[in-house]
Amino acid sequence: DDAASMTHRKPPLALTQPKEPEFLTARRVRPVKVKSSAELEEEMLANIPKFKARPVNKK
Fold it and tell me: What's the mean per-residue pLDDT of the chain?
């Protein structure tokens, strides 16, 4: 009976050591330069088609 209890003895409890998670996104390559909101707005305005009025029909 003593031999059976000795083989199933649990190890002493110890504190868990915290460690930072290793996310796959941390290793992913990111763009070198992120555009600011002013640059994005300027680019959007440049992509908008220009307004062109048609000539008036003089009949």
Answer: 82
